[in-house]
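notes to self, project folder thing:

trying the whole complex as one job this time. last attempt i did each chain seperately and stitching them together was a nightmare. two parts in total, labels are on each line so i dont mix them up again. if this works i'll redo the older ones the same way
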Amino acid sequence: MYSEKVMNHFSNPRNAGVIKNADGIGEVGNPVCGDMMAFYIKVKDDMLEDVKYQTFGCVAAIAVSSIVSEMAKGKTLIEAKSITKNVVTDSLDGLPKEKKHCSNLGAEALAKAIKDYEGKKSD
Amino acid sequence: MDHASATPVKKQVIESMIPYFDQYFGNPSTVYDMGSKIKKVIEEQRSNVSQLIGAKPEEIVFTSSGAEANNLAIKGVALARKKKGKHIIISTIEHHSVINSARFLERMDFEITFLPVDKYGMVNPAHLSRVITPETVLVSIMHANNEIGTIQATPELADICREKGVLFHTDAVASVGNIPVDVNVLNVDLLSLSGVSLGGPKGIGALYFRNNLRLMPLIHGGIQEMGRRGGTENVPGIVGLGKASELAVEELTDKMNHLQKLRKCLVDGIHEKIGHAKLTGHPEKRLPGHASFCIEAIEGESLIYTLTHEGIYSNTGSACASKALKTSPVLMSIGIPPDIAQGSVVFTMNNNNRIEEVKYVLEKLSIAVAKLRALSPIWRKKISS
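result (full assembly):
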């Protein structure tokens, strides 16, 4: 059902965890509908110095979080914003049809974390 | 550890079937001697299956599966009795083959009442008694549930129906071969069973119907199965089911004792090693080899895949694991909130499982749950609060 790449990220999730005193936090989903993700970012000179996350959900949800963190880490904020659902699906060598939307929340959670950071900065 | 989905076909069963693929391949309906010999074999198997459930051979019709047996029971009775009434009662935790047969009849102007269950998955007999109307022609309540293991008070439910002159069907696919099932003790009019859960082959099931009860056939064809089901008989399948039934009778007591020990070890172990894990279904009135839990703050599909890596196959009622992305209706029916139902895991054991395997499952399950909880934002909130 899942690609090898999905299974690889699911079995060995990269960058999992929480950043204490994160510069931005993005939480999406809720456990009732299925998946829930929280992304934490540390920003330095408009670069994502560190990206971590916690995920409650299925195999796809965990793999999505892992690959999004890997793709975003070390990128500029502008680059990180170009990570979309489709980019995530492609880089995982595809996702099962029914999982493409509900479990593919990583990009959204990351974008929310960046927005949170930008909001805080402009305050 | 997922024997509710399928059981391995026993060696003796496979051996009994083989001659009927090539050596005795004839069509039982033919008039020459090969046909009549095979016909005789089918009748012997009918007798074996009937003995497994305390029925008479002529009260058994072979079907292609437990699902077809359920279809035939629900639709076959409803269509044969529609002049008498158009009301059917089923529980909310029935197998899809029962629920969707009822839904089909709903589209044909039948009225369906869905009986709720309590937190253990039990139907309340008094409640059943209240919803039966003069229009009711059939009640279908499963004997044991495959997802939560709960065994209903079937004789009590069936007695109510008998008193009121309403036919009672039970889906016994999950229970036959795992606990004693006798149609007279249960007092049922119709009962479905399947080879899949009995150490028999897939593609074969049977429906018991009491004393020449009238059933509208769903598969129209020749007069096979006394006109109740057309189509050339699945002879190897029937032979396999007959053999599996024979063996199931012999091994039942030992199997139950063995499975109860395994279940106790598994359930106690989960309670001991994994906190915030809730047993689903009835704590005592449950199938001997059935242990089902909802483990908080993790999701079932992730857990199943993690265990698969360790060579452990299990099942889940999590929404994420279903194609429709919906929480199992059974877990909803027993009042489990959707977020907790996400952590559903179901272990169903068979007599080929050993205590060492259960211990191995406990060890790997603890590791898997710890790994997923470390990733879970819900768990983090839970332990910090």
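what i see at first glance: The first helix of chain A runs from residue 4 to 11.
need to look closer tmrw
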